[in-house]
Amino acid sequence: MTDLSLLDERAINCLRFLAVDAIQKANSGHPGMPLGAAPLAYVLWTRHLRHDPADPTWPDRDRFVLSSGHASMLLYGLLHLCGYDLGRDELQQFRQWQSRTPGHPEAHLTPGVEATTGPLGQGTANAVGMAIAERRLAHLFNRPGHTLVDHRTYALVSDGDLMEGIASEAASLAGHLKLGKLTWIYDSNDVTLDGPTAVTFSEDVAARHRAYGWQVLEVADGNHDLAGIDRALAAAKADTSRPTLIIVKTTIGYGSPKKHGTSAAHGSPLGPEEVRATKEALGWPTEPPFLVPDDVQARYAEAAAAGRAVHSEWRTRLEAWSAAHPELRATWDQALAHAPPDGWADGLGATLPAKPLATRESAGLVLNDLAGRLPWVLGGDADLGGSTQTQLRGEADFDGQSGAGRNLRFGVREHAMAAIANGIAYHGGLHPYVSTFLQFADYMRPAIRLAAMNHLPVTFVFTHDSVALGEDGPTHQPVEHLMALRLIPELTVLRPADAREAVAAWRTAIDCRRPVALALSRQKLPLLAETTSAAAGLPRGAYVLRDPRDQAPALALLATGSEVSLALAAAERLDAEGIPTRVISMPSLELFAAQPADYRDAVLPPALRARLAIELGVSLGWQRWVGEAGAVLAVDRYGASAPAEVILHQLGFTVERVVARARQLCAR
Fold this sequence. Notes:
The chain has 668 residues and is α/β, with parallel strands linked by helices. It has a six-stranded parallel beta sheet with strand order 10-9-11-12-14-13, sandwiched between helices. The protein has a five-stranded parallel beta sheet with strand order 1-2-3-7-6, sandwiched between helices. Strands 16-18-17-19-20 form a five-stranded mixed beta sheet. α1 crosses α2, α1 (6-26) crosses α3 (72-82) and α2 (32-48) packs across α9. The protein is elongated. It starts with 5 loop residues before the first helix and ends with a helix. The relative contact order is 0.09. The model has no long low-confidence stretch (mean pLDDT 97).
């Protein structure tokens, strides 16, 4: 090797072979990138990244995102060597049941992992979100003479990451916002799983990112030129007017006599003989596996000690700032803990007009109310704020340089928008929300799934929630989307029926500290007299809105959102016909499913077998609640282009149709 001291070389090889040995032991994994990217990772983690293994969640640490999550053993090796709570036994249990070293990094599982990066490209957008969060928190809390928030975000990205469309969306927005404290380090090894990138990827990546408004730096020899990598990282920090892409040319599977530079090194263990040959080629002892020499451990410990010193200095600044601004300290603590002050929601939505409102309108008014109470709420939309009603009135658009402004204008970039929101939530200290039409939830689904997996407090606001949006037609009318979102474990889907339920929905979204999807109507809905108990009922997923007078119900109508008013109108008719009817609002099927059995049975008694569910979406998923004797009035087809009232009539969402179906059920 050139341009490396002997100790540098040993420290890099140690990092390489911790990965190789773990992957070989598991007989599963991706050794190519750890072998090739170890030099750039070593320089970043030992010379530039501000981190403290003794406190992985120190607020002003630099963030590092391994967007190319298949190279997870590179990150696990860094964490182990730097002294995080990730022992050698965990490396030896790579990809095994209940280990803290899964095949792709998981932020909720492994100390020091900042983001769960599975699908390629997600981490690029997560890093953009983290850079946005840093700027916003700096604006909120820094004061003259007191700098509390001042750190950088780094992401290690691969050829595959930069092929994904989400990375292009994220890079475009980051350049537009001039996020000068964001750096992507591109491990450019010209190989993907199926072979050379030349088969599918011939664009000029540097020119593309310059066109986005990025500073682009290049290191021609990432295998050996540590000084060049070091200079590029220093130049990235020096330019705070724009994000930086550092293109580092590396060799996948570096050192492997048979597999270097080929896709054979990408996604499979090297094999016992090739592991031995690679160690011999790089001058590393062939035995024992998982070797960490004392001098190498000491080198990584030096970096950890430097991080501890920076952290200690920040703690001193924190105390001085707290003494000077005690009111800000209280808000800081609440924001970091995602713990609103007691009584924060008292009177929330009290000024809503008592007239029919689309739930997109009422929810938008509630959002503006709560944003005035919680300064750490911010968000935006995919070029639809005027329609989704999620713009914060009186607030400026977010400025990526100063951090001022709370309205994030994502443009028509739903894929990146959702993952950027996740990055804001991963960073901590803010509650992000994003909005678009429900039809486009499919564009956001990978990021929503990751938000749910990591219990990220992100609110996904979806409007135009059914075929009742009307003339735009079936391409824009969601049918299967509500149930598709409900299928995501750990995601709460809320479909409020009126303004009162919209208030309760937003309060639940803030209080539950995990991802929530709001499904809101385009059409105006009446304010229902029966929803006065929504504040208590909605957080439990379902509650009784109406019971027949002086007799037990013979029928239950279950409905969500705009269909609740239809169920109430039908119940009046059914009562008059001698069919005593209970109406149940079910804004969240998953919250109701999580309630104790005695509550569920009180709302939906097992003996009450005549049940009709009413929802402007597919019927799949309702069978659990209506049972074998029940039925579902649903939309198991695509919509149509016509006025909303025509569509609803043609699809049978009328009082007459509900009454007729109910009669049939009760006659069985």
